[in-house]
Specification:
It is a single chain. With 227 residues, the chain is mostly helical. It has helices at residues 29-43, 48-61, 84-94, 102-111, 116-126, 134-143, 149-160, 173-187, 192-206, 215-219; strands spanning 2-5, 8-10, 13-15, 22-25, 99-101, 131-133, 170-172, 212-214. It folds into three domains: 1-43, no CATH class; 44-145, no CATH class; 146-227, no CATH class. The N and C termini lie far apart (64 Å).
């Protein structure tokens, strides 16, 4: 631990205090401040004081602090553009919970500097209230990026998948089944019988013993038509 004796200056001369009390600098402080400064520069928060409070609160709890990843583009405008990468960051901060309170999710959304009108639009389309089913919210957020249902589900797989260098993104078929059914219901133009036929075919003819579905299974198989 580094320790500095207190002193005062008068007309250029250093005057030692009347006590021998020392100021002790915790050894972890320099690195902590260094990481905080780098995170603030990388994130460019619109409200630095609020962000700093969120940052140190997360660190004290052992949670992931609200820091932009190096691969994330810092927006030149007031709002960041929603991307699959930002949705993946958001998903990581939800930390595997199925239900999240609207205030907490709205705060996470704000920390990432995402458009408030898009958040409100997703809330309205999903008819969400205080308690939000995270996967449903994520599905609708992904649909704002995907032109088709297949594209939307591809983005969802990329966000949810924990596979990075081992091939195409993949998720449990049960999760895919839930999300495809939900998106089709929201879309309103795909019959329940068509959804059922596609899911039955995928489960019986495509899914392997691991119970996982890969992006290629529904984007490159000519017999799988999700629309």
């Amino acid at each position: 631990m580094f320790c500095l004796k207190s002193f005062t200056a008068y007309n250029g001369a250093v005057i030692m205090p009347y006590t021998d009390k020392q100021i002790c600098i915790p050894p972890e402080l320099p690195e902590l401040l260094k990481q905080f400064t780098k995170a603030a520069i990388r994130t460019q928060p619109p409200d630095l004081l609020q962000w700093a409070s969120d940052y140190f609160s997360a660190v004290s709890r052992g949670d992931i602090p609200p820091v932009r990843e190096r691969s994330e583009r810092v927006p030149l405008s007031n709002w960041a553009e929603l991307t699959p990468e930002l949705l993946k960051v958001l998903h990581q901060r939800v930390s595997g919970r199925l239900i999240i309170h609207v205030d907490e999710l709205a705060h996470m959304w704000k920390v990432l500097n995402l458009p408030t009108d898009l958040f409100e639009s997703v809330m309205n389309v999903g008819h969400f209230s205080e308690e939000i089913e995270w996967l449903k919210f994520l599905a609708l957020a992904c649909s704002s990026l995907g032109v088709t249902i297949a594209k939307t589900l591809k983005i969802i797989c990329e966000v949810l998948s924990s596979d990075y260098d081992s091939g195409p993104p993949r998720i449990p078929f049960s999760t895919f089944q839930f999300l495809y059914t939900y998106i089709a219901e929201i879309d309103g133009e795909i019959s329940a019988s068509h959804v059922s036929r596609m899911l039955n075919y995928i489960e019986q003819e495509v899914i392997g013993p691991d119970g996982l579905i890969k992006v290629n299974d529904f984007t490159q198989n000519p017999r799988v038509r999700l629309e």
